[in-house]
Automatic annotation (TrEMBL), chain A:
The keyword Transmembrane helix applies. Keywords: Cell membrane, Membrane, Transmembrane, Transmembrane helix. This is Multisubunit sodium/proton antiporter, MrpD subunit (TC 2.A.63.1). Belongs to the CPA3 antiporters (TC 2.A.63) subunit D family. Signal peptide: none annotated. Pfam families: Proton_antipo_M (PF00361). It is found in: Cell membrane; Membrane. It comes from Thalassotalea agarivorans. Residues 132-425 form the NADH:quinone oxidoreductase/Mrp antiporter transmembrane domain.
TrEMBL record, chain B:
Signal peptide: none annotated. Belongs to the CPA3 antiporters (TC 2.A.63) subunit C family. It comes from Thalassotalea agarivorans. This is Multisubunit sodium/proton antiporter, MrpC subunit (TC 2.A.63.1). InterPro entries: CPA3_antiporter_subunitC (IPR050601), NUOK/Mnh_C1-like (IPR039428). It comes from the Bacteria. It is a multi-pass membrane protein. GO terms for cellular component: plasma membrane.
Length: 498, 118
């Protein structure tokens, strides 16, 4: 029973739990319930990851209607990998949220926060596991609508404008994807991803399909905040409640990167997108500019959340860079960075949230002398920061190592150089904060306590994961490698199955 | 000329799409932005309905004496997309209500701490 329906559980569990959360009404109860549901989804995702590593792909026909006529839930290694990351981060953030949102969200809205969080999780899991292009759009909108709500829950009134701008940009992006999917349907008459892939392969450069691809790429680029379509992200991340930022920064944009991978590699085929349409050049240039420009902008910001938000845009540049290298090694580095970046950005934003809870500010001046007053929080921040920079023995080093070697494999010296320059910029923007925390004196007479236990534990789980996946890479690299192999071979698989 | 007339529905779609998009970008009033967004989305709905049309086909409802039906799938898809659009509009309008309460205005150039928004 469980085995049979496991593929659909990560969507169904949070989706059904969300309305129950409102009925529970008591915020403590809602918190406990949401955390349990999220942890349960995580367990299911882990079992799915193990199954897919073993079998390759899990297909589930919703309502018993066989694909390509019915809607298919299709989980391969790539989706299972990202699904595991998303559900794990969601569970940790929910544990963390209990204390964190106490100060940032007014108490009567706490149940709504958990409800919106669960809906967002349901949408994200849906995007990751669906095998149907139109369903992908619907799930994208479910998660986005929940995200706008989550951002606007902050008591800071600027969050409202940030959420509104995100809504406008996000809806335009989603509608672009809808147009693209419509054009694919217009030509092929199907929406199932495997079926689409087979039929698109039969066309050789059709104008409607090319236009559809262009619309989809622009739409997805807005959703994943690829430079220069990233302008919604820094305000949204800066003004959202800390728990929401930690969740979104480590999941939402990663899932959008996954959507891009799905459209390029599974549906259109890497050969078509990169060789016929030459999208690799566009993506490569945008990714390199994102790394360079946004790392630079991060240096000159004073609000630490904004620094980390711009750093996120730069890190997304690394992921897209991996995809645009058009090789299994590059794709693998991109997927690996999705995994590793979730670990480090989650930990960083959690640490900043803890500082916000205790000092009431996220300005860089508030960090003065925190190294002594909040030793555990700042130690977590420092280790996760080292991971962002890419210091050996942290997860960040591993993904940069694979990225640089994938670039060098193709003699792209300049690209490798820019990846390293991006790391130098990261030393500066992370270094500024660490310097304030450890080498500047705190203001006299201000007594700041260490963050509460419920915030430290999830933060440190992520930090330890950062170190663990920096030393023992067999799980993360193995899964990313299997996923990249699977995606680059999917064209061959399509031809094999009639 | 027949190229323009034969594909008149697609021309309407393109016109609405551009008009809606332009309103979203240029409007200063947040409510007008939402209206523009709606026009933009509606154009996509019309595109889908156009795809599903079969010449001489009737609406996809079973009735006596009709043998050719339009493709029902785009209708169903667009029903879903309309629901998504309505949900987006309502979230957007709810946000506008809260912005009005917080700032006292819905004109974008009148927000005081706009510069703080990076």
């Amino acid at each position: 029973m469980f085995e049979l329906h496991a593929p659909v559980l990560p969507i169904i569990l949070p989706l059904m739990a969300a309305p129950l959360c409102i009925i529970l009404a008591k915020r403590q109860l809602a918190w406990l319930f949401a955390t349990l549901v999220s942890a349960l989804s995580f367990c299911v995702s882990v079992s799915l990851l193990l199954t897919t590593l073993d079998q390759g792909v899990v297909s589930y026909a919703l309502g018993g209607w066989q694909p390509p006529w019915g809607i298919e839930i299709r989980i391969d290694v790539a989706s299972a990998l990202v699904l595991t990351v998303v559900t794990a981060i969601s569970s940790l953030v929910l544990v963390y949220a209990k204390e964190s949102i106490e100060k940032e969200i007014s108490q009567d809205r706490h149940t709504l926060f958990y409800t919106a969080h669960l809906l967002c999780l349901a949408g994200l899991s849906g995007i990751l596991s669906t095998g149907d292009a139109f369903n992908l759009f619907v799930f994208l909108e479910i998660s986005s609508l929940a995200t706008y709500t989550l951002i606007s829950l902050a008591s800071d009134k600027r969050a409202l404008i940030a959420a509104f701008r995100y809504l406008i940009m996000g809806t335009i992006g989603a509608t672009f994807i809808l147009i693209g999917v419509g054009m694919m349907y217009m030509k092929t008459g199907t929406l199932n991803m495997m079926d689409l892939a087979a039929r698109i392969a039969e066309f050789d450069g059709n104008r409607t399909l090319n236009t559809g691809l262009a619309f989809i790429m622009v739409g997805v680029s807005i959703k994943l905040a690829l430079f220069p379509l990233h302008m919604w992200l820094p305000p949204a991340y800066t003004h959202a409640p800390s728990a929401v930022t930690a969740f979104l920064a480590s999941t939402a944009t990663k899932v959008a990167v996954y959507v891009m991978v799905r459209f390029i590699f599974t549906i259109y085929g890497a050969d078509y997108v990169f060789n016929t349409m030459s999208m690799d050049i566009i993506l490569l240039v945008l990714a390199v500019v994102a790394i360079f420009k946004c790392s630079y902008v991060a240096i000159v910001q004073n609000n630490v959340k904004t620094v980390l938000a711009y750093s996120s845009v730069a890190q997304i540049g690394y992921m897209v860079l991996g995809i645009s290298l058009v090789s299994a090694a590059g794709l693998m580095a991109g997927l690996l960075h999705i995994f590793n970046h979730a670990l480090m950005k989650g930990a960083l934003f959690m640490a900043v949230g803890a500082v916000l809870l205790r000092t009431g500010s996220v300005d860089i001046r508030a960090f003065k002398g925190l190294g002594r007053q909040m030793p555990f929080t700042m130690a977590a921040f420092t280790i996760a920061g080292l991971s962002i920079i890419g210091v050996p023995l942290t997860a960040g080093f591993i993904s940069k190592w694979f990225l640089v070697s994938a670039a060098l494999e193709q003699q792209q010296w300049l690209v490798a150089f820019f990846v390293l320059v991006g790391s130098l910029f990261a030393i500066v923007y992370i270094g500024r904060i660490i310097e304030a925390a450890y080498f500047k004196k705190a203001e006299q007479g201000v007594d700041i306590k260490e963050a509460p236990m419920l915030m430290l534990i999830p933060m440190w789980i992520l930090v330890i994961a950062n170190i663990y996946f920096g030393i023992d890479t067999s799980l993360s690299v193995g899964a990313a490698e299997a996923a990249a192999q699977w995606l680059t071979n999917s064209a061959a698989v399509v031809e094999a199955t009639p | 000329m027949s190229f323009i007339i034969d594909y008149y529905n697609y021309w309407i779609v393109v016109f609405l799409m551009m008009a809606g998009f332009y309103i979203v970008i240029s409007a200063n009033n947040l409510v007008k932005k939402i209206v523009g967004l709606n026009i933009f989305q509606t154009s996509v709905f019309m595109m889908y309905i156009s795809i599903g049309k079969v010449s001489d086909g009737s609406a996809p409802i079973v009735a006596d004496g009709i043998t050719t039906y339009s493709n029902p799938l785009p209708h169903v898809l667009i029903l879903t997309a309309i629901v998504v659009g309505v949900a987006t509009t309502s979230v957007g309008l709810a946000l506008i209500v809260r912005i009005k309460k917080a700032y006292g205005t819905v004109e974008e150039n009148e927000f005081k701490d706009k510069e703080d928004l990076i």
